[in-house]
Specification:
alpha+beta
Amino acid sequence: MTDSSTYLLSSFKDNPERLFQGYCFAKEDFIFGQSGADKYFEHTGKQISYGEDGCYVLAKKVEKGFLIGSDFSGFKKILYFYDKASGVWAVSNSLSLLINHLEEHSINVTPHIALLMMSTERLSFTQQPITFDTIANEIKILPVNTLLTIGDSCLNIEKINDIESNAIDYRQILINFVNIWISRFSTLLSNDELFIRQGLTGGLDSRAVFSLSNLAYHQIDTKNTAEYRLACHVIKGCDKDIKVAEKITKYFGYKLNAKTRYSDTIYHLDAEEKYLTWKNLCLGVYQPIYFPSTKVDYRKISIGGGGGENHRTFYGNNPKTTTYNDSIRYLCSKLDNPEQMVDLAIDLFETLSVMQDVDHCGDDIDALLLHYRHFRNRFHTGLFPQYQISFTPLSSRYL
């Protein structure tokens, strides 16, 4: 059964003409849910586009079936099944719901043994999918920044063309990025209905994002603002982060880890709801287990520094994954079946080719960095944006 965090479109279902589920920014405008999308259209005459910052799926009925896309980072996953012979298709962000739905209609789903084995490796590289295949042979992952047209007799994948990305130089990109996110934070901070919690640590990423929100906070009328809190968790045996966070908040006049009042007004999930939400969103696609605490609510917003590794080396620090080729060799060595080794190697090289094509980058971007953007960032950084409204500017389309 789907809820506000999941969706399921299928040739077996009576699908809506148009679906917007999730939230996003369109320039400086914050939009939440289908009702928000409808009001946005009423006030501006504009429809929400594919590939905006946020966490959402956008689907609309077209002549050949459905045209489906997501947010820029692909946080709202698009998993799909298509059988050309029967014309059966199904799309969801939940592997669990998708498999159950197919089995309810007597469609057999088989395990991808090599990828199941990869998921047992204790590497950050394998904590989420490593190719556009899933652990179910018949179910695939739509690459980020692509659109899926799917119907009884149609399966087509096309790239989203970002016309803004080709028009300006690096300096202007940074200026635009800073300006748009200061404006976005001003939008949020100016709404006294909202409870905003921002992570702040000793790390470069959270401090970079704080520099934007701090500027926004001092540009708005502080008499009518959201409840804004800065938070830093203490990791047992390591207090460096909180010491840095305390110095920053003291210098700029904020309180750190102050209590919030939202707990009395936001719906808290019970144990079964927490488990089902995790199961529907994570089972089979993200190995670490984290449970949500509340329902997705437009009033509760998180801001974080996730996405910084989209722009610098992450995997290369592990001797087992120093380069993309090293990673392939290491992973294939964990398989006993020579045929599975060859198939996995081919899949990983084909995945690289797809990523390079989608990002228009060829060999200009390191393959491991590219893989991080398409998989680790999408499923790891993208976990909490599925559990609650969470913005990560360092994953932005404007950077």
